[in-house]
Specification:
The protein is α+β, with helices and mostly antiparallel strands. The chain contains 10 helices and 10 strands. The protein starts with 8 loop residues before the first strand and ends in a 13-residue tail after the last helix.
Length: 369
């Protein structure tokens, strides 16, 4: 096979799944984001992510010997939806420690995925029913495929429908006992919806409407008002809107030329704040960005840039982190500043902004400085 038709990296691991969920973590982002992502996955399913973490719901409550294959591809891999019962995609930034996968009862299982921005596809099959599968090793298995994020749209997820429920649209959804979090159920009448649970005596469609209303209310809170349609599919747009609504609305009203100029401006400011702009090997790259010229040596690809930065920052074999200054200032404090990442390496967070400023769609720029 050619390189494009096979993964460039493959890693096998085994996870002890319980509580119907597992997590993909890129090594950065908020430590307490998982609960909110779980609620989102249950409401819209079968997974939800914030760019740094992805929570995945499984139809099975548990599988204590769940095999997972992690693959890295150079480009989007060939589609094989017919081989899988559940499929979803998410965007995920993976830091220097690679991808880590965990379930509530298991420790983190590492997968050696190189740092970068990825689209990840999470696919599972071998399901026997919702909730308790009748054994601790029901036989479902999973595959996670990662490829560089090219800004393309995420594909529509596939949600598995229990054949027993599909055959009887009047069947009640599986009920979750107090204190136990299980994944969603569906019926033939509402198979396009993911419904986290049904209270005793409630109809599935009523439960779906309740969760749709709850999801809409949560979205308004996160956006600081009604979601901004022009930014609805843009990474971290709701974080920006919730923090500074006026700024987000201004960006939503810009044309392509204005957005391109803004992306260049943001990349330059990120490099300045990170202490990169005046370094001799960086200055030619910023000049090329402003002029629209090809990037020079060390900026031919992100891996080469990070390698040069590691040499600059740490020297051979060294490891440390720089403290990031707080940048709350006088901006409206609707919630904690989502751009304050705590003790991280600011230069390493800033590097990708130069490449993001060259993306075909300037709205897809994702500054992590």
């Amino acid at each position: 096979m050619t390189r494009d038709l096979e993964p460039v990296l493959e890693h096998h691991l085994e996870l002890a799944l319980d509580y119907g969920q597992f997590v993909l973590h890129g090594g950065e982002g908020e430590e307490d984001a998982e609960l909110a992502l779980l609620e989102a996955a249950l409401a819209t399913g079968p997974s939800a992510g914030d760019g740094h973490t992805v929570v995945v719901c499984s139809p099975h409550q548990n599988n204590f010997e769940m095999p997972v294959v992690v693959q890295v591809w150079a480009t989007r891999p060939p589609a094989d939806e017919d081989d899988w019962q559940q499929i979803s995609e998410a965007r995920l930034h993976i830091g220097e420690y690679g991808l880590n996968i965990s379930s509530p009862v298991d420790t983190w299982e590492p997968a050696p995925v190189p740092p970068g921005d990825y689209i990840v596809e999470i696919a599972g099959t071998g399901f026997v029913g919702y909730g308790w599968p009748g054994t601790t090793t029901p036989g479902d298995h999973w595959r996670i495929r990662c490829w560089p994020d090219d800004g393309s749209e995420l594909r529509t997820p596939r949600v598995w429908v229990d054949p027993d429920l599909a055959a009887d649209s009047s069947s009640a959804l599986p009920r979750i006992d107090s204190g136990v979090t299980l994944p969603s159920g569906t019926t033939a009448a509402s198979a396009h919806l993911v419904i986290p649970f049904a209270t005793e005596g409630s109809a599935p469609d009523d439960q779906a409407r309740q969760w749709e209303q709850a999801a809409a209310e949560r979205a308004r809170e996160e956006w600081g008002g009604e979601p901004i349609a022009a930014l609805a599919d843009i990474y971290c747009a709701r974080d920006l809107a919730g923090y500074d609504r006026a700024l987000a609305e201004s960006i939503a009203g810009m044309d392509v030329e204005q957005l391109r100029a803004l992306s260049v401006f943001c990349a330059e400011r990120a490099y300045e704040y990170a202490g990169l702009a005046d370094r001799p090997w960086v200055r030619p790259a910023l000049a090329a960005l402003r002029a629209g010229d090809p990037f020079p040596e060390h900026f031919q690809d992100a891996a080469a840039t990070f390698a040069r930065l590691d040499e600059d920052e740490y020297g051979p074999g060294a490891a440390q982190f720089r403290s990031v200054l707080r940048v709350d200032g006088d901006l409206p404090a609707r919630r904690r500043n989502p751009y304050d990442r705590g003790n991280i390496s600011r230069p390493h967070f800033a590097v990708n902004t130069l490449f993001h400023a060259r993306l075909a769609d300037p709205l897809q720029v994702r500054s992590r400085a």
